[in-house]
Every structure is written in structure tokens, then in C-alpha cells.
Design a protein that fits this description.
Elements lengths: L2 H16 L6 E10 L11 E2 L1 E15 L3 E6 L7 E4 L12 H13 L6 E8 L9 H16 L6 H19 L6 H8 L4 E6 L4 E6 L7 E11 L3 H19 L9 H6 L3 H25 L7 H13 L6 H12 L4 E4 L5 E9 L3 H14 L6 E5 L6 E2 L2
Parallel strand pairs: 4-6
Antiparallel strand pairs: 1-3, 1-13, 2-7, 3-6, 4-5, 7-8, 9-11, 9-12, 10-11
Helix pairs in contact: 2-3, 2-4, 3-4, 3-5, 4-5, 6-8, 8-9, 10-11
This protein binds adenosine-5'-diphosphate and magnesium ion (MG).
């Protein structure tokens, strides 16, 4: 067990003590970083996320009175108390909507979720683009399903993915295309997961980073520009409009020729991103499968340029850290996640880690930007029971 998980379990145990409750079990689910394939999950495209060793742990005790109590070690997350009937859309707000919404959606999917006391603790940084939200949902979902007596198999995990997406869409009210929930529940340690977001088919792709002397660095700009949420909805609307004009159900089915047929330059640029990003995902998968992971750098760079220029979701902080990482020797770098802040990733030689980290921090401080957080990440397993 990683130190992170142990810490999470201890923190959860503290919380449960306050309730005078011994957990029936502890479950954990990972955050993730997306190697490539950004803003394609809601367009029926392909993406290549990898689960982290950082997790949300959930300690859970079953109750027989239908009461649901939710608590988090996060200081900004007030406890919630309600009943199994109080967990749906419009009934819960704030952080608890992620957990309550998941219980509601798992129930809606036909699982006989019992009342429960549930306490969570996470070492996935919240709101940094590493999907703390899906890790929370996945940990809650798998715990609830197992407490309900369900057998943990692939069918169950697919059901839980859909429930977690539904919770985030309908109860939290956040747009999410399903990549995060899929990797949280289906990832394999040591591999990235190629996700076909149209039908949620997945294929593990062994990365071999360590064997190649490489590491993935996550650079958290610690900035979130307030326009982020509205812009996500606008990009989705642009994609819907472009798909309509082209007569396509999924914009990822557009061809390079289709891109040129679009009359509105904005829709043309958005579509060009979606088309080229899917091509880059395929190219990365091919290189990685051929044992040439060290050569994917230019594709990461291409993804960043496309997100910045065609999709217009970057931010000065992201451009600065990506540029600084490359100048300090990164093989490739790009923004990840929704954009307008959040995190970037850089593929680096392990021996360059200190130099790249220092250069990125210096570049931000030089421009009077917020000092970014730097972490190197490795690939971890999917949601699982810890004890
Ligand atoms: P990301 O998923 O990239 O971290 P989101 O904005 O999608 O960012 O989700 C972050 C939100 O998820 C937090 O603001 C909080 O409401 C909720 N959340 C995630 N993990 C926890 C946790 N351990 N405790 C309380 N809330 C959490
Ligand atoms: Mg999220």
C-alpha cells in the first residue's frame, strides 16, 4: 500500500471516531492525468488517461435506518446528513453532491444501496485537473455497490461508470464526458487506458516510462480563471453546432475535408482541434505500443498548440509553464483538463526532473504569476477495496 493510501485511511479513521463508528470497509479510487486526447470525450473521440497512485479513500459503515451521513477531511467540506430519499438532483449542493449524487445514481441503476456513514480523505489535489471529483465518485460508487452485496466484476464497473457520470451531470450539474470515471474504475497499473468514449470500450496501453528513463511531471498552475465553467458549455455548444452542420452524430467522425467545409471560422477551428487531437491520440498509441514512448513529445506539443490556438482554452499561466518546461529539456508538454488554468503535463527524462521543476517555478515568478505546484506521477490501479 502506498504511503498516500495509508495516510488517507488514517485520516478517515479519525473522522469515523468522531461518529463512534468502525467502518465495514475502506475503498479507494484514483485521480488521473490525461496523456493526450483533450476535449474529445464529449465528441465521441479517443483519449489516453492514466490513473494515478493518488487516491480518494472512503471508509464506510452500513446503517439499517436509511440515514446517510457524509464527511470529508477537506476543511472546506461540511458534513451532510440526510436519508436515502434526499440524495437526488436539486436536493444536495456543494461537495456532498458528488458523493450523495453517486449514491442516488447507483440506486437509480437498480442497486439496493443501504443507509451508511461515509467519510472520505483524498491526496488528489482538489480542482487541479487531476479529477479528484471522479476519484471521489468512483470510491463512493464501488463502496456502495459492494455494501449492497454486488459482485465486483466488469459489468458492475461499467454500471458504476455510468452512475458516476450521471451524478456529476445531473446532481452536481457539471458537464463531464466520462473519461475520468472510466479510468477511475477500469485503469490498470503501469498502463494508460485508451478510452473510446463513444461506447466506453477500453484498451490498456503499457507505457514503459520508467524503463525508458522517463517521468511524467504535473505542473499545477494553482490558477482557475472564473470564465472556465461557462466556456466549457460554449465549447460543447460549438461542437454540437459543427456536428449538426456536417450532419454527424459525433464530431470525432469529421474528416479533414469536413473541417474545410465549415463556413464559420470559429467552428472550423474547433472541429480542426477535435479531428487533429484524435489523430494525435492514435499516433501516440502507435508509438507507445512500438516501445517508442520517448518520441511522443512533439505530439504533446501539438496538442497544446491546438488547444491554445484552435480550441482557445489555454491561459497565460499554462503557456508559460509549458514553454519553460520545454526550454529546460522536457521532451514535450501540454495543458491538460478543461483549461483556463488547472494543470499542464511535461514528459521529462528522470534526470531532468529537478531542473525542469526549478525552471517552471522561476518562469512563473519572473512574470509575477502564482507559484505552481510540481509533482511527478506514476501509473496506479483502478478503484479497489483496501480493507
Ligand atoms: P477536479 O476533478 O479536477 O479535481 P472538479 O472541480 O471537477 O476538479 O472537482 C473538485 C471538487 O470535487 C471539489 O471542489 C469538491 O467539491 C469535490 N471533491 C473532490 N474530492 C473531495 C474530497 N476529498 N472532499 C470533499 N470534496 C471533494
Ligand atoms: Mg473533475
Amino acid at each position: 500500500m502506498s504511503g498516500a493510501q495509508e495516510q488517507a485511511e488514517l485520516a478517515v479513521a479519525e473522522l469515523l471516531k468522531a461518529w463512534d463508528a468502525e467502518p465495514d470497509g475502506v475503498w479507494a479510487a484514483p485521480g488521473r492525468v490525461n496523456l493526450i486526447g483533450e476535449h474529445v470525450d464529449y465528441n465521441g473521440g479517443r483519449c489516453l488517461p492514466m490513473a494515478l497512485t493518488r487516491v480518494t479513500a472512503a471508509a464506510v459503515r452500513r446503517r439499517d435506518d436509511g440515514v446517510v451521513r457524509l464527511a470529508s477531511t477537506d476543511p472546506d467540506a461540511p458534513s451532510f446528513e440526510g436519508t436515502l430519499a434526499d440524495l437526488g438532483p436539486g436536493q444536495v449542493s456543494g461537495w456532498a453532491a458528488y458523493a450523495a449524487g453517486t449514491l442516488w445514481a447507483v440506486q437509480q441503476a437498480g442497486v439496493d444501496v443501504p443507509g451508511l456513514d461515509l467519510a472520505v480523505s483524498s491526496d488528489v489535489p482538489l480542482g487541479a485537473g487531476l479529477s479528484s471529483s471522479a476519484s471521489l465518485e468512483a470510491a463512493v460508487a464501488i463502496a456502495a455497490a459492494e455494501l449492497a452485496g454486488r459482485t465486483d466484476d466488469r459489468d458492475l464497473r461499467h454500471l458504476l461508470i455510468q452512475a458516476a457520470i450521471r451524478a456529476e451531470n445531473e446532481v452536481v450539474g457539471a458537464g463531464t464526458g466520462g473519461m475520468d470515471q472510466t479510468v477511475a474504475l477500469l485503469a490498470e497499473e503501469g498502463s494508460a487506458l485508451l478510452v473510446h468514449t463513444r461506447d466506453f470500450r477500453t484498451e490498456p496501453v503499457h507505457l514503459g516510462l520508467a524503463e525508458a528513463g522517463l517521468e511524467l511531471m504535473v505542473i499545477d498552475t494553482r490558477v482557475k480563471h472564473t470564465l472556465a465553467d461557462g466556456q466549457y458549455a460554449k465549447r460543447r455548444a460549438d461542437c454540437d453546432a459543427a456536428a449538426r452542420e456536417l450532419g454527424l452524430e459525433w464530431l470525432s467522425d469529421a474528416t479533414p475535408a469536413d473541417v474545410e467545409r465549415l463556413t464559420d471560422p470559429r467552428l472550423r477551428a474547433r472541429t480542426r482541434h477535435v479531428v487533429t487531437e484524435n489523430q494525435r491520440v492514435d499516433a501516440v498509441v502507435e508509438l507507445v505500443r512500438a516501445g517508442r514512448v520517448a518520441e511522443i513529445g512533439p505530439l504533446l506539443d501539438g496538442s497544446h498548440a491546438s488547444l491554445r490556438d484552435d480550441y482557445e482554452v489555454s491561459a497565460v499561466e499554462l503557456d508559460v509553464v509549458v514553454e519553460a518546461a520545454r526550454e529546460a529539456g522536457a521532451l514535450g508538454a501540454r495543458m491538460v483538463g478543461g483549461g483556463f488554468g488547472g494543470s499542464a503535463i511535461a514528459l521529462i527524462r528522470s534526470s531532468d526532473a529537478a531542473a525542469v521543476g526549478a525552471a517552471v517555478v522561476a518562469a512563473c515568478l519572473d512574470r509575477s504569476l502564482t507559484e505552481p505546484g510540481i509533482l511527478t506521477v506514476t501509473s496506479g490501479p483502478a478503484a479497489r477495496r483496501l480493507s
